[in-house]
Design a protein that fits this description.
2 copies of one chain form a homodimer.
Chain A: H1 7-17, E1 26-27, H2 30-36, E2 39-44, H3 54-64, H4 67-71, E3 74-77, H5 81-93, E4 97-102, H6 107-115, E5 119-123, H7 127-141, E6 144-145, H8 152-168, E7 174-178, H9 183-195, E8 200-206, H10 211-218, H11 240-248, E9 252-256, H12 258-270, H13 282-289, E10 298-303
Parallel strand pairs in A: 2-10, 3-4, 3-6, 4-5, 7-8, 7-10, 8-9
Antiparallel strand pairs in A: 1-2
Helix pairs in contact in A: 1-3, 1-8, 3-5, 3-8, 5-6, 8-9, 9-11, 12-13
GO molecular function, one term (chains A, B): threonine deaminase activity
InterPro entries (chains A, B): Ser/Thr_deHydtase_PyrdxlP-BS, TrpB-like_PALP, TrpB-like_PALP_sf
Organism (chains A, B): Rhodanobacter soli
């Protein structure tokens, strides 16, 4: 259930979600290009349904179910965007969505999940509490678990954005995504290298949740990191299979401080004119932190989400 | 020099600016459609070069000049986006741009004008002082005046966005733009009705600068309004020819309070995920204020600019 998807599964996912998902635009900024010394092609997944790329994976999972499975609904645990995405995806098939949310999640995101029609189940903000509550809902309802990142269907769905991006911005040399649990980074890596093995792949990770960078450096999965970052979308530990994909596809993970990310977020707001959430800004922060890796190259930059509480901006 | 442009002049302008201007995307939001009870197609001119539609008109004016005229440079008076646009347009031709700026203009906009390479000339914030300073620069340099809205080349340039929009969003029933000096509204009206005479045309104007609405109601140009609105881009009095175009093309002007505009701005930030300036939000405010005029229709909505000071948000 959490094996890495093949490229064929990514292509199948693209066909499956096409009636429901948006083809998001690719945006440019002359000012940001000048600042980076590179050609940046921003894939605007914050303009995806539900305001984040997560709809792709959730939608693929929901429409992969048999009618019999679907009738029992879906369940997940998510601090925000995946929960919202699963609720919206379930609504496209008219089935129930149960979302386990940890205390302390962003209020605006919880409200969006409820508006999308999901049933919320609150729990303590620990991995153990989330999983226990999920298991309880599964027992009670028979709902299918759709894990936020350690799920083949979810990874395949996230990878579909690459099919669009490489067509919208031909001739890219490199791609960069944020790294949280690794669902996006792994799906993107698999699809990207299937289409163009010469692409350089990068990930951006908050210093305060740098378990993927540590895991790649040590050659073994580090699970002792206690996340301490303003990037609420990137606090999850990278999944085991997800980490395998990062390793196999030589994804170089660049770590950035929260201050660097917040400065990059301001740039995305003022120069690209896009309301993106803080986790999305790690990618620009990484490019500006290590410009020599990107200098003169054509870089696809994935903006992951735009669900922001305007009353709680980080500056 | 300030006669209304023909549709042919709009088409010529489109060809003239094509090497320099961006084809801006059209954005959608399911949440805003639901709120409005209409299908809203947002033409994202805040993603135009310089962060506003103004680049279209300025670029057309600059590239309409003979080599001899161009060598003496261009001059304008502008509280912000037009000045910036003229500076950027002049740079595409390698000529000098002089920009007369009134005291009290938005700091972020002035900085952008200087970054674009223009020579700033400061004056008192009155129409008379602006015009006097402009005349002085013209005498001293021989520069060509490019008025922000009462200029045929500028109006034709602004109208070019309609050529894109009607192709990007086929089957529109109505269009709405903000109304300040009327350069945008008049250019759009001329191009729109040349392409589809059945289109309903609307303008959105701040209550505190409602000279166009008053002028249309009284059948004569009202010049006594003292602007009092947070919409810094819409404080100019509507031009005489511009008003003629609004009248001829039956543009219905809807007035909105600053509070309504600020609420709409928040919606554009949170739902459409776009950093637009407050003047841009008048259009959504107008639609939400008079929903019966738009119910069930396919509406083209022009978002005019995105040059915002994040330290001085109006909420």
């Amino acid at each position: 259930m959490n094996a890495l998807p093949s490229f064929e599964q990514v292509r199948d996912a693209a066909a499956r979600i096409a009636p429901h998902a948006r083809v998001t635009p690719v945006l440019r900024s002359a000012a940001l290009d000048a600042l980076a010394g590179a050609e940046l092609h921003f894939k605007a997944e914050h303009l995806q349904r539900g305001g984040a790329f997560k709809f792709r994976g959730a939608c693929n999972a929901v429409w992969s179910l048999s009618d019999e499975q679907a009738a029992r609904g879906v369940v997940t645990h998510s601090s925000g965007n995946h929960g919202n995405a699963l609720a919206l995806a379930a609504a496209t098939r008219g089935i129930a969505a149960h979302v386990v949310v940890p205390e302390g999640a962003v209020r605006a995101k919880l409200e969006a999940i409820e508006r999308a029609g999901a049933i919320l189940h609150r729990c303590a903000p620990t991995q153990a509490a989330r999983e226990a509550m999920c298991a309880e809902v599964q027992r009670a309802t028979g709902a299918e678990l759709v894990h936020p990142y350690a799920d083949t269907r979810v990874m395949a769905g996230q990878g579909t954005l690459v099919l669009e991006l490489l067509q919208q911005a031909p001739g890219l040399d490199a791609l960069i995504t944020p790294v949280g649990g690794g669902g996006l980074a792994s799906g993107v890596a698999i699809a990207a290298h299937a289409m163009n093995p010469a692409l350089s792949l990068f990930g951006a990770e908050p210093l305060g949740a740098d378990d993927a960078a540590q895991s790649l450096a040590h050659g073994t999965r580090v699970t002792t990191v206690v996340p301490d970052t303003v990037c609420d979308g990137l606090r999850a530990l990278v999944g085991e299979r997800n980490l395998d994909a990062l390793r196999t596809h030589h994804v170089e993970v660049i770590t950035v401080s929260d201050a660097e990310t917040i400065a990059a977020m301001r740039l995305l707001w003022t120069e690209l004119k896009q309301v993106v959430e803080v986790s999305s800004a790690t990618v620009l922060a990484a490019i500006l932190k290590q410009p020599q890796r990107f200098a003169g190259r054509r870089v696809g930059v994935v903006l992951t989400g735009g669900n922001v509480d305007l009353q709680a901006l980080p500056w």
